[in-house]
Design a protein that fits this description.
15% helix, 6 helices
Length: 365
């Protein structure tokens, strides 16, 4: 029992030490505003609540002495905002929160009549007026319907001042604002997703599992400081109070779009409630198959007789010889030049070597 407890503590410590920081406003948007009365005087201590349509999650705050309220990090989705204050009618607004965008919603409250309770509702357009941050957001419908072939970075090329990167240039995502692609930065659900070896995203997301994708081009907010070029932010789908999902098949072949290979990708997504309004699940699966022409390549290897001669030499590891015999395709016929060259290198002339030609299949699944 003691050993199990120690192991559990060590595992928890390892998970905490390997966790990455989550930056504000990367996983959602911001909702702010000011509450006033009919005479434009600010209303203090008004209760402001924002409730998600899909999950029922509610966030609450109060206006300060300036009548202002703020929800700094709200998950992407549709919401109902409700304002309540003593002596005033309840006011509600419908709004949609988009990734990395700020919505400013200023609401005037009407004085309540005796024994009267009226709710005012209106649609809130997606307008960002309080930030100079330049961005382009792509919804789930665009992500699924545009031909991006499971590469979200292709969406970035639809944005102004973004172009395809030149051949031989390190990085991914294209050239944003004239900057080199290796200066791009990638975030997935608010977590750093940069592969510093390949200077691109470390994890690629299943296309049908993405809720929203946003490219920030410049004038970033303070939380974006890891890259000098484009900020590529991806938010995946989540479970809701309703069961939802889909199955998909993406297929290419020379008979459809004149490509030289066959590419099939299929799978499904599924999400829903475990405990309504409290606990949800979402998962996605896909399988990819590619069929392309094989490539021939050559190498020099000993024949079976040559490997036997090598095995008989003093100091040769039997393990290495057995590994080569088991895993290496040996030459079927010796080549005079190869035998002479390798015999000179090994210092033992006459060991037969030959050329092995193999076709490397490029199919993957």
């Amino acid at each position: 029992m003691y050993r199990r407890t120690i192991n559990a503590l060590l595992l928890a410590g390892a998970l905490l030490s390997s966790s990455s920081p989550i930056w504000g406003q990367v996983t959602g948007g911001r909702v702010t505003g000011t509450i006033t009365d009919a005479s434009a005087a600010v209303v203090q201590s008004a209760a402001v609540t924002i409730k998600a349509h899909s999950t029922g999650q509610a966030l609450s705050t109060q206006t300060n002495e300036s009548g202002a309220y703020s929800f700094p990090n709200v998950a992407v989705g549709d919401y109902t905002l409700t304002v309540e204050a003593t002596g005033f009618l309840i006011s509600t607004r419908e709004l949609r929160v988009s990734l990395n965008q700020q919505i400013t919603l200023n609401l005037p409250l009407s004085v309540a009549a005796m024994q009267e309770n009226v709710t005012v509702s209106a649609n809130m357009p997606e307008i960002q007026t309080d930030s100079s941050q330049q961005l382009n957001s792509y919804s789930n419908d665009q992500i699924q319907q545009l031909p991006i072939f499971n590469d979200l970075n292709l969406l970035a090329r639809l944005s102004p001042n973004v172009s395809k990167q030149s051949a031989g240039v390190h990085g991914a995502g294209g050239t944003v604002g004239g900057m080199r692609p290796h200066a791009n930065s990638f975030n997935l659900d608010g977590v750093d997703n940069n592969d510093f070896v390949s200077t691109g995203p470390a994890v690629n997301v299943i296309q049908d599992a993405v809720e929203q994708f946003t490219l920030l081009r410049n004038n970033y907010n303070a939380e974006f400081g890891s890259g000098a070029a484009g900020q590529f932010n991806t938010i995946t789908k989540s479970g809701t109070n309703d069961f939802h999902g889909n199955s998909f098949l993406y297929f290419q072949s020379p008979k459809l779009n004149s490509t030289s290979s066959k590419d099939a990708r299929y799978g499904f997504t599924l999400g829903g409630p475990i405990v309504k309004n409290k606990l949800f699940f979402f998962g996605a699966f896909h399988h990819e198959f590619k069929d392309q022409p094989s490539t021939l390549f050559e190498y020099f290897a000993p024949t079976a007789a040559g490997l036997d001669q090598l095995a008989a030499l003093p100091g040769v590891s039997p393990y290495v010889v057995n590994y080569l015999r088991t895993n290496l395709t040996l030459a079927s016929q010796p080549t005079t030049s190869a035998t002479a060259d390798f015999g000179t290198v090994l210092g033992v002339p006459g060991i037969p070597f030959g050329t092995v030609t193999l076709a490397a299949p490029l199919s993957s699944s």
